[in-house]
Design goal:
Elements (H helix, E strand, L loop, with lengths): L1 H9 L5 H11 L3 H13 L3 H14 L2 H13 L4 H17 L1
């Protein structure tokens, strides 16, 4: 489901991609949570994107931590705070 969402996103089929990401999320796919958050972030829906990134972080995933740092930076939460999240995600990802 997540892969289908990614394929549709690559083809620019807005709306359809989000639908498949949501189905994958319901099935517990962490990667779909990240992809849905990224899609929402691109659409400037930062609050909803943040919810999905935080949920994915809770489920466990260093890539999500990096993306959450990026989102914080876009929200103007301060470069140091955003960089800290990004750095933690980078360190965890390299240590795995």
């Amino acid at each position: 489901m997540n892969r289908l969402g990614s394929l549709l996103r690559a083809q620019g089929r807005a709306g359809e991609d989000k639908s498949w990401y949501r189905r994958a999320v319901k099935a517990g796919d962490i990667r779909a949570m990240v992809n849905l958050g990224s899609l929402l972030k691109e659409q400037e829906k930062n609050s909803e994107a943040g919810l999905w990134f935080r949920r994915a972080i809770a489920e466990g995933g260093p890539t999500v931590v990096r993306q959450f740092g990026s989102l914080l930076n876009r929200r103007g939460m301060g470069e140091r705070w955003a960089f800290a999240w990004w750095f933690v995600g980078t360190v965890f990802r390299r240590s795995r």
